[in-house]
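PROTEIN DESIGN WORKSHEET
SECTION A - STRUCTURE
LENGTH: 350
C-ALPHA COORDINATES:
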Protein backbone atom coordinates (compact mmCIF):
# COMPACT_ATOMS: atom_id res chain seq x y z
CA UNK A 1 0.00 0.00 0.00
CA UNK A 2 2.69 2.48 1.02
CA UNK A 3 4.74 2.08 -2.15
CA UNK A 4 1.70 2.20 -4.45
CA UNK A 5 0.37 5.30 -2.71
CA UNK A 6 3.70 7.11 -3.00
CA UNK A 7 3.92 6.42 -6.74
CA UNK A 8 0.31 7.50 -7.29
CA UNK A 9 0.77 10.75 -5.33
CA UNK A 10 3.89 11.55 -7.39
CA UNK A 11 1.81 11.20 -10.57
CA UNK A 12 -0.97 13.37 -9.15
CA UNK A 13 1.44 16.13 -8.15
CA UNK A 14 3.06 15.99 -11.59
CA UNK A 15 -0.28 17.03 -13.10
CA UNK A 16 0.06 20.41 -11.40
CA UNK A 17 3.00 21.16 -13.70
CA UNK A 18 0.77 20.89 -16.78
CA UNK A 19 -2.15 22.74 -15.19
CA UNK A 20 -4.37 19.64 -15.25
CA UNK A 21 -4.76 19.93 -11.47
CA UNK A 22 -4.37 22.83 -9.08
CA UNK A 23 -1.80 22.46 -6.33
CA UNK A 24 -4.50 22.57 -3.64
CA UNK A 25 -6.51 19.78 -5.32
CA UNK A 26 -3.40 17.63 -5.67
CA UNK A 27 -2.68 18.05 -1.95
CA UNK A 28 -6.24 17.01 -1.10
CA UNK A 29 -5.75 13.81 -3.11
CA UNK A 30 -2.39 13.22 -1.42
CA UNK A 31 -3.85 13.74 2.04
CA UNK A 32 -6.78 11.39 1.41
CA UNK A 33 -4.55 8.66 -0.03
CA UNK A 34 -2.22 8.95 2.98
CA UNK A 35 -5.23 8.59 5.29
CA UNK A 36 -6.41 5.56 3.30
CA UNK A 37 -3.01 3.91 3.69
CA UNK A 38 -3.02 4.64 7.41
CA UNK A 39 -6.49 3.13 7.91
CA UNK A 40 -5.93 0.09 5.65
CA UNK A 41 -2.37 -0.65 6.80
CA UNK A 42 0.82 0.34 5.04
CA UNK A 43 1.98 -3.26 4.60
CA UNK A 44 -1.34 -4.42 3.12
CA UNK A 45 -1.10 -5.49 -0.53
CA UNK A 46 -3.25 -3.21 -2.67
CA UNK A 47 -4.45 -6.08 -4.87
CA UNK A 48 -5.63 -8.02 -1.81
CA UNK A 49 -8.24 -5.44 -0.81
CA UNK A 50 -11.88 -6.44 -1.31
CA UNK A 51 -15.05 -4.40 -1.36
CA UNK A 52 -15.62 -5.32 2.30
CA UNK A 53 -12.16 -3.99 3.17
CA UNK A 54 -12.92 -0.71 1.43
CA UNK A 55 -16.25 -0.49 3.27
CA UNK A 56 -14.43 -0.89 6.56
CA UNK A 57 -12.01 1.89 5.68
CA UNK A 58 -14.83 4.22 4.59
CA UNK A 59 -16.69 3.65 7.84
CA UNK A 60 -13.50 4.13 9.85
CA UNK A 61 -12.89 7.42 8.08
CA UNK A 62 -16.48 8.55 8.74
CA UNK A 63 -15.89 8.07 12.48
CA UNK A 64 -12.44 9.64 12.39
CA UNK A 65 -12.28 12.91 14.40
CA UNK A 66 -12.13 16.03 12.26
CA UNK A 67 -9.57 18.33 13.83
CA UNK A 68 -10.94 21.34 11.92
CA UNK A 69 -14.25 21.22 13.76
CA UNK A 70 -14.58 22.12 17.42
CA UNK A 71 -16.49 19.83 19.71
CA UNK A 72 -19.59 21.28 21.32
CA UNK A 73 -21.01 20.48 24.74
CA UNK A 74 -23.69 17.74 24.64
CA UNK A 75 -26.48 20.17 25.47
CA UNK A 76 -25.52 22.36 22.49
CA UNK A 77 -25.31 19.52 20.00
CA UNK A 78 -27.64 19.53 17.02
CA UNK A 79 -29.04 16.04 16.65
CA UNK A 80 -29.85 16.65 13.00
CA UNK A 81 -26.17 17.19 12.14
CA UNK A 82 -23.23 14.77 12.12
CA UNK A 83 -21.33 14.46 15.36
CA UNK A 84 -18.83 17.33 15.68
CA UNK A 85 -16.17 14.73 16.38
CA UNK A 86 -16.75 12.88 13.11
CA UNK A 87 -16.06 13.76 9.49
CA UNK A 88 -18.59 15.97 7.74
CA UNK A 89 -20.73 14.51 4.97
CA UNK A 90 -18.85 16.46 2.30
CA UNK A 91 -15.49 15.23 3.65
CA UNK A 92 -16.72 11.65 3.52
CA UNK A 93 -17.91 12.05 -0.06
CA UNK A 94 -14.61 13.68 -1.06
CA UNK A 95 -12.60 10.87 0.58
CA UNK A 96 -14.55 8.26 -1.34
CA UNK A 97 -13.90 10.08 -4.63
CA UNK A 98 -10.18 10.24 -3.86
CA UNK A 99 -10.01 6.51 -3.18
CA UNK A 100 -12.05 5.74 -6.30
CA UNK A 101 -9.54 7.75 -8.36
CA UNK A 102 -6.66 5.79 -6.81
CA UNK A 103 -8.18 2.42 -7.73
CA UNK A 104 -9.18 3.60 -11.19
CA UNK A 105 -5.54 4.39 -11.89
CA UNK A 106 -4.40 1.17 -10.18
CA UNK A 107 -6.51 -0.87 -12.62
CA UNK A 108 -5.09 0.99 -15.65
CA UNK A 109 -1.55 0.57 -14.36
CA UNK A 110 -2.05 -3.15 -13.66
CA UNK A 111 -1.49 -2.79 -9.92
CA UNK A 112 -4.81 -4.53 -9.18
CA UNK A 113 -6.77 -7.09 -11.18
CA UNK A 114 -10.24 -6.12 -9.91
CA UNK A 115 -11.38 -2.73 -8.71
CA UNK A 116 -12.77 -3.29 -5.18
CA UNK A 117 -14.83 -0.09 -5.45
CA UNK A 118 -17.18 -2.02 -7.75
CA UNK A 119 -18.25 -4.22 -4.82
CA UNK A 120 -18.04 -1.63 -2.04
CA UNK A 121 -21.53 -1.25 -0.54
CA UNK A 122 -21.16 1.69 1.82
CA UNK A 123 -22.87 4.62 0.13
CA UNK A 124 -22.87 8.29 0.99
CA UNK A 125 -26.40 7.98 2.38
CA UNK A 126 -25.44 5.12 4.70
CA UNK A 127 -22.54 7.19 5.95
CA UNK A 128 -24.91 10.01 6.88
CA UNK A 129 -24.15 11.71 3.59
CA UNK A 130 -25.43 14.96 2.19
CA UNK A 131 -28.89 15.81 3.47
CA UNK A 132 -31.27 18.11 1.61
CA UNK A 133 -30.17 21.53 2.75
CA UNK A 134 -30.39 24.90 1.06
CA UNK A 135 -26.98 26.20 0.15
CA UNK A 136 -28.17 29.10 -1.99
CA UNK A 137 -29.48 32.22 -0.33
CA UNK A 138 -33.07 33.21 -1.02
CA UNK A 139 -33.63 36.33 -3.10
CA UNK A 140 -34.29 38.41 0.01
CA UNK A 141 -31.20 37.07 1.78
CA UNK A 142 -29.02 37.61 -1.28
CA UNK A 143 -30.30 41.15 -1.76
CA UNK A 144 -29.64 41.91 1.88
CA UNK A 145 -26.05 40.73 1.59
CA UNK A 146 -25.49 42.53 -1.72
CA UNK A 147 -27.00 45.70 -0.27
CA UNK A 148 -24.55 45.59 2.63
CA UNK A 149 -21.67 45.03 0.19
CA UNK A 150 -22.81 47.98 -1.93
CA UNK A 151 -22.75 50.22 1.13
CA UNK A 152 -19.17 49.18 1.82
CA UNK A 153 -18.27 49.78 -1.81
CA UNK A 154 -19.84 53.24 -1.89
CA UNK A 155 -16.46 54.98 -1.75
CA UNK A 156 -13.48 55.62 0.48
CA UNK A 157 -15.69 57.46 2.93
CA UNK A 158 -17.60 54.27 3.81
CA UNK A 159 -17.69 53.99 7.56
CA UNK A 160 -16.52 51.00 9.53
CA UNK A 161 -19.15 48.46 10.71
CA UNK A 162 -20.90 49.59 13.88
CA UNK A 163 -20.53 46.18 15.45
CA UNK A 164 -16.74 46.29 15.02
CA UNK A 165 -15.71 49.69 16.36
CA UNK A 166 -12.37 50.97 15.10
CA UNK A 167 -11.23 51.97 18.56
CA UNK A 168 -11.73 48.55 20.09
CA UNK A 169 -8.91 47.44 22.43
CA UNK A 170 -7.91 51.07 22.93
CA UNK A 171 -6.32 51.68 19.55
CA UNK A 172 -7.40 53.23 16.27
CA UNK A 173 -6.81 51.33 13.05
CA UNK A 174 -4.27 52.71 10.66
CA UNK A 175 -5.45 53.91 7.27
CA UNK A 176 -4.06 50.81 5.56
CA UNK A 177 -6.16 48.59 7.83
CA UNK A 178 -9.46 49.88 6.41
CA UNK A 179 -10.67 47.04 4.20
CA UNK A 180 -14.31 48.04 3.66
CA UNK A 181 -14.02 48.57 -0.11
CA UNK A 182 -12.18 45.29 -0.53
CA UNK A 183 -14.74 43.39 1.56
CA UNK A 184 -17.62 44.86 -0.42
CA UNK A 185 -15.95 43.91 -3.70
CA UNK A 186 -15.30 40.35 -2.56
CA UNK A 187 -18.93 39.75 -1.59
CA UNK A 188 -20.26 41.38 -4.77
CA UNK A 189 -18.02 39.26 -6.99
CA UNK A 190 -18.89 36.05 -5.17
CA UNK A 191 -22.64 36.81 -5.16
CA UNK A 192 -23.02 37.94 -8.76
CA UNK A 193 -20.30 36.06 -10.68
CA UNK A 194 -20.05 32.86 -8.61
CA UNK A 195 -16.30 32.20 -8.97
CA UNK A 196 -14.61 29.43 -7.05
CA UNK A 197 -12.85 30.86 -4.00
CA UNK A 198 -9.51 29.69 -5.43
CA UNK A 199 -10.21 31.66 -8.63
CA UNK A 200 -11.05 34.76 -6.61
CA UNK A 201 -7.89 34.82 -4.50
CA UNK A 202 -5.73 34.00 -7.56
CA UNK A 203 -7.06 37.03 -9.45
CA UNK A 204 -4.50 39.67 -10.43
CA UNK A 205 -5.13 43.29 -11.36
CA UNK A 206 -3.88 42.57 -14.88
CA UNK A 207 -6.62 39.93 -15.33
CA UNK A 208 -9.21 42.70 -15.78
CA UNK A 209 -9.60 44.56 -19.06
CA UNK A 210 -12.11 46.76 -20.90
CA UNK A 211 -13.63 46.01 -24.28
CA UNK A 212 -16.23 48.32 -25.90
CA UNK A 213 -16.83 50.01 -22.57
CA UNK A 214 -17.44 46.74 -20.71
CA UNK A 215 -15.13 45.59 -17.92
CA UNK A 216 -14.16 41.90 -18.15
CA UNK A 217 -12.49 39.51 -15.74
CA UNK A 218 -10.31 36.83 -17.30
CA UNK A 219 -10.71 33.98 -14.83
CA UNK A 220 -8.07 31.26 -14.70
CA UNK A 221 -10.04 28.19 -13.67
CA UNK A 222 -9.56 24.51 -13.08
CA UNK A 223 -7.51 22.46 -15.50
CA UNK A 224 -5.77 25.50 -16.95
CA UNK A 225 -9.01 26.71 -18.58
CA UNK A 226 -9.81 30.42 -18.84
CA UNK A 227 -13.07 32.27 -19.28
CA UNK A 228 -13.82 35.96 -19.76
CA UNK A 229 -16.77 37.13 -17.70
CA UNK A 230 -18.21 40.67 -17.95
CA UNK A 231 -18.68 42.49 -14.65
CA UNK A 232 -22.14 43.90 -13.91
CA UNK A 233 -22.02 47.71 -13.90
CA UNK A 234 -22.42 47.96 -10.12
CA UNK A 235 -19.58 45.51 -9.55
CA UNK A 236 -17.35 47.31 -12.08
CA UNK A 237 -17.88 50.62 -10.23
CA UNK A 238 -16.86 49.09 -6.90
CA UNK A 239 -13.86 47.43 -8.59
CA UNK A 240 -12.72 50.83 -9.87
CA UNK A 241 -13.29 52.49 -6.49
CA UNK A 242 -11.29 49.75 -4.78
CA UNK A 243 -8.32 50.21 -7.11
CA UNK A 244 -8.42 53.99 -6.66
CA UNK A 245 -9.05 54.24 -2.94
CA UNK A 246 -9.04 50.81 -1.27
CA UNK A 247 -6.07 48.84 -2.56
CA UNK A 248 -2.80 49.85 -0.99
CA UNK A 249 0.29 50.41 -3.10
CA UNK A 250 2.05 47.07 -3.29
CA UNK A 251 4.53 45.24 -5.50
CA UNK A 252 2.22 42.21 -5.29
CA UNK A 253 0.13 41.93 -8.46
CA UNK A 254 -2.78 40.29 -6.60
CA UNK A 255 -6.13 42.08 -6.84
CA UNK A 256 -7.13 41.30 -3.27
CA UNK A 257 -4.61 42.15 -0.58
CA UNK A 258 -4.65 41.72 3.16
CA UNK A 259 -4.10 44.86 5.23
CA UNK A 260 -0.48 43.74 5.46
CA UNK A 261 -0.14 43.99 1.67
CA UNK A 262 -0.04 40.27 0.91
CA UNK A 263 -2.29 38.22 -1.37
CA UNK A 264 -5.47 37.30 0.46
CA UNK A 265 -5.63 33.63 1.46
CA UNK A 266 -8.58 31.33 0.77
CA UNK A 267 -9.25 30.96 4.46
CA UNK A 268 -9.68 34.72 4.85
CA UNK A 269 -12.64 34.93 2.49
CA UNK A 270 -15.14 33.34 4.90
CA UNK A 271 -14.23 35.92 7.56
CA UNK A 272 -14.90 38.68 5.02
CA UNK A 273 -18.36 37.28 4.22
CA UNK A 274 -19.19 36.97 7.92
CA UNK A 275 -18.07 40.55 8.51
CA UNK A 276 -20.35 41.88 5.76
CA UNK A 277 -23.21 39.68 7.01
CA UNK A 278 -23.14 41.52 10.33
CA UNK A 279 -24.40 44.59 8.47
CA UNK A 280 -27.47 42.77 7.15
CA UNK A 281 -30.81 43.03 8.91
CA UNK A 282 -31.18 39.91 11.12
CA UNK A 283 -34.44 38.99 9.38
CA UNK A 284 -32.61 38.73 6.04
CA UNK A 285 -29.35 37.28 7.35
CA UNK A 286 -28.20 33.68 6.98
CA UNK A 287 -24.70 32.33 7.23
CA UNK A 288 -23.24 31.22 3.91
CA UNK A 289 -19.93 29.94 2.59
CA UNK A 290 -18.12 31.14 -0.56
CA UNK A 291 -19.33 27.97 -2.30
CA UNK A 292 -22.85 28.74 -1.10
CA UNK A 293 -22.62 32.08 -2.91
CA UNK A 294 -21.59 30.18 -6.05
CA UNK A 295 -24.82 28.17 -5.64
CA UNK A 296 -26.68 31.44 -5.14
CA UNK A 297 -25.38 32.84 -8.43
CA UNK A 298 -26.37 29.74 -10.39
CA UNK A 299 -29.75 29.34 -8.72
CA UNK A 300 -30.97 32.88 -9.30
CA UNK A 301 -29.60 33.22 -12.82
CA UNK A 302 -31.37 30.01 -13.83
CA UNK A 303 -34.55 30.96 -11.93
CA UNK A 304 -34.63 34.20 -13.91
CA UNK A 305 -34.59 32.20 -17.17
CA UNK A 306 -31.03 33.15 -18.10
CA UNK A 307 -29.76 30.86 -20.86
CA UNK A 308 -28.29 27.71 -19.33
CA UNK A 309 -25.23 27.79 -21.56
CA UNK A 310 -24.51 31.36 -20.48
CA UNK A 311 -24.72 30.31 -16.82
CA UNK A 312 -22.42 27.38 -17.55
CA UNK A 313 -19.85 29.72 -19.07
CA UNK A 314 -20.08 32.16 -16.14
CA UNK A 315 -19.42 29.35 -13.65
CA UNK A 316 -16.71 27.74 -15.79
CA UNK A 317 -18.24 24.29 -16.31
CA UNK A 318 -17.60 22.24 -19.41
CA UNK A 319 -20.86 20.27 -19.14
CA UNK A 320 -24.40 21.60 -18.80
CA UNK A 321 -25.30 18.58 -16.65
CA UNK A 322 -23.04 19.90 -13.90
CA UNK A 323 -25.39 22.84 -13.37
CA UNK A 324 -27.88 20.49 -11.73
CA UNK A 325 -25.65 20.28 -8.68
CA UNK A 326 -25.73 24.07 -8.29
CA UNK A 327 -29.44 24.58 -8.82
CA UNK A 328 -31.36 24.85 -5.52
CA UNK A 329 -35.13 25.00 -5.33
CA UNK A 330 -36.57 28.38 -4.43
CA UNK A 331 -39.74 28.80 -2.37
CA UNK A 332 -42.68 29.86 -4.50
CA UNK A 333 -40.97 29.35 -7.86
CA UNK A 334 -43.43 26.68 -9.03
CA UNK A 335 -46.35 28.96 -8.24
CA UNK A 336 -44.74 31.76 -10.24
CA UNK A 337 -44.07 29.41 -13.16
CA UNK A 338 -47.69 28.25 -13.26
CA UNK A 339 -49.06 31.80 -13.03
CA UNK A 340 -47.07 32.80 -16.11
CA UNK A 341 -47.45 29.55 -18.09
CA UNK A 342 -46.34 30.21 -21.69
CA UNK A 343 -49.20 28.15 -23.17
CA UNK A 344 -51.85 30.19 -21.35
CA UNK A 345 -50.66 33.66 -22.27
CA UNK A 346 -52.64 35.77 -24.70
CA UNK A 347 -51.45 36.37 -28.26
CA UNK A 348 -48.31 38.47 -28.45
CA UNK A 349 -48.91 42.10 -29.29
CA UNK A 350 -46.00 41.87 -31.68
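SECTION B - SEQUENCE
RESIDUE ASSIGNMENT:
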Amino acid sequence: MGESADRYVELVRAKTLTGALSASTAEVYARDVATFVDLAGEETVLDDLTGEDVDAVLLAFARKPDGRRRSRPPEAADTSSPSPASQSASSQARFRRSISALFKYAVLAGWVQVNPMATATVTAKERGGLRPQRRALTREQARGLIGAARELGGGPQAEAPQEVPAARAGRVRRRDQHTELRDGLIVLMLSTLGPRVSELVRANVEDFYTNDGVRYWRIFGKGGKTRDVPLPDDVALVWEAYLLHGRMASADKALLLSWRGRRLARGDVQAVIDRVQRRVDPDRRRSVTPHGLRHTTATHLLADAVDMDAVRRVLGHSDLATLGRYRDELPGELEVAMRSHPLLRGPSSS
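SECTION C - NOTES
DSSP finds twelve helices and three strands in the chain.
The longest strand covers residues 214-220.
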